User: Which sequence fits this backbone?
């Protein structure tokens, strides 16, 4: 069992209005790497987030993952705007790696903020 908890916020757009629905996901694993890249005016520091979510956790939470949804590190209450996450560590999902093969205990999905 993985030791971390995250909160998934599905971002929903209807008639130009944005709403967020949340699911707490227990038993996941996340890690962050820091990168520095050279730019015209110096260096730019950025972080890459990776979150591995077992299929059993996705099924139990009845969660769906899609690009541009948000992953908040730890537990988080419902939100009505993204500004409410300013004091939280979070990232938008930019890629989803589907590893749904092998035995049930091996199946997982990895979401990252990098493409």
Assistant:
């Amino acid at each position: 069992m993985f030791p971390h908890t995250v909160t998934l916020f599905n971002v929903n757009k209807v008639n130009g209005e944005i709403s967020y629905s949340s699911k707490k996901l227990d038993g996941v694993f996340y890690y962050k790497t820091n990168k520095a890249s050279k730019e015209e005016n110096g260096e730019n520091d950025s972080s890459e987030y990776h979150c591995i979510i077992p299929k059993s956790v996705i099924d139990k939470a009845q969660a769906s993952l899609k690009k541009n949804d948000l992953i908040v590190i730890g537990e988080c209450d419902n939100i009505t705007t993204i500004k409410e996450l300013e004091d939280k560590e979070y990232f938008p999902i930019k890629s989803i790696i589907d590893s749904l093969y092998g035995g049930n205990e091996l199946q997982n999905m990895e979401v990252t903020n990098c493409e």
